[in-house]
Structure formats: structure tokens, C-alpha cells
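Slide 14.
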Amino acid sequence: MDHAEPSPSGATLAEEFAAALDWWREAGVDNDYGDDATEWLTENQSETAEGSAQNKPARPRKQAPAPPPPKKIGGDKNSWPAELPAFQQWFASHPSIDDGGAYPPVSPSGSAKPELMVIVAEPEENDSESLLSGPQGRLITGMLRAAGIAPDEIYIASVLRRHTPMPDWDGLRGSGIGELLAHHVGLVAPKRILTFGRNIPPLLGNDTAQGAALLHNFNHDGDSIPVLGVGSLPELLRSAPRRQRFWQRWLEWTDG
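Slide 15: predicted structure.
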């Protein structure tokens, strides 16, 4: 079609197009508009969102509550029995000593002021009525008989009152198990202390970095008690060389 040809109204197409533009200008519409959303809308919304985020005060972070202090083993220290027989009964029966377990609590045995106090980490697995009633106890009995110490001259105690697989020693120290042990030793007042287990010397204020066998003193309420620290009884049961080294150290300790 020739754009110069007149339309049925008598005007050419170019003239009609120009007239339409003039009409839109008179109506105040002088820009091109489409049906699709343009970027100015997105940018404006983004600026509005950013401005809103900047003007909004930051919400304070919630701080995690502080963990509760560790539960003190034995409760208030001032309530601990001050006489040995009462302490033995309290140690085996009072609910504040531990949270229970699959094994029964076992009481320490012996009288105050013995020649030797033997301290182990825990009762043997099959202990129920008496402490160290199994192979570990028989090993101790045999060694001390050879050393010339009668059974009634020995006080036998355990740090834990029941057999406890894989105890948390760090947590126990934080809960005051060392203070309870020191109180126990103070009531027994032995002439010497023999410990079996690497976790016991730190409870008595000693360092285990010097080896399996330690020679130290336990200082408590003005008293100083000689202490020999040895590896665990299960280790001695398994190893003849360990038993030989222990015996040599024992002779050196008792000859001094």
C-alpha cells in the first residue's frame, strides 16, 4: 500500500498518524508506555527495602544462659561427718555422693590411725559387701602380707563408692571429689598412704607428670603424710615386670 494514498476520510495515513500523536500530546501523554514492568519499579522497591532495613534498629542478640555451676559432691562441706564411723556410713548411703549407677555402693573398711591407708579409684566390678573382694584385693593382700603388714593395720578406701566404667575425672575434680577424699584421709589419719591409679595423686595435690610411681607427701590440716602413687591394680595384675618395679619402689619407700 502506498502511504501517500488518501484514506476513506480523505487524509493520508501519515496525516492520520500525525493527528493521533497530536491528540495524545493534548491529553498529556507524551511518553511511550508498555504492558511489561520496567526496571524503575524494581529499583525503587530495592531502595525502599534498603532504606527500611537501615532505619530499622538492630535486634539485640540473645545471649545463651550461663551453664549452672557443677553440683558439689557431698553437698555442703560443713555437713560432712566429723567422725570416721559416721563418715563411712554416710559415704556409702548418702544420695549427694553420686547420681546412682548400675553397681552397688561399697563402704570403706578399717579403723582410724592405721599403719597404711590404701586408696583405689573405685570398687571392683563384683564388689558388693566389701571393698576389693576380687582378684585386685587378693593381689594387695598378698603384697602387704609379704611386706609384714597385718590386715588390721590397713585401711582400704576408694575414691568412688561404686564401680563406674569410664568415669569423668575432670568433671569429678570440678565437683569437689578431691575435697571429699582429703576429708576422708584426715579422718583416717594413717601413717602412710598407698594409691593405685593415675587419677588419684592429683586429687591429693600431686603431679602425675613424673611417672607411674610417685613419692610425695599429703599435707592436710598441719599433718604431712608420706604417699606412694602406683599405676592401677589391673595393670599390675597383667604385668609381672610392673609388679617387680612396684615391689622395688615399695622397699625403697619403706626403708626410708
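Speaker note: The longest strand covers residues 223-230.
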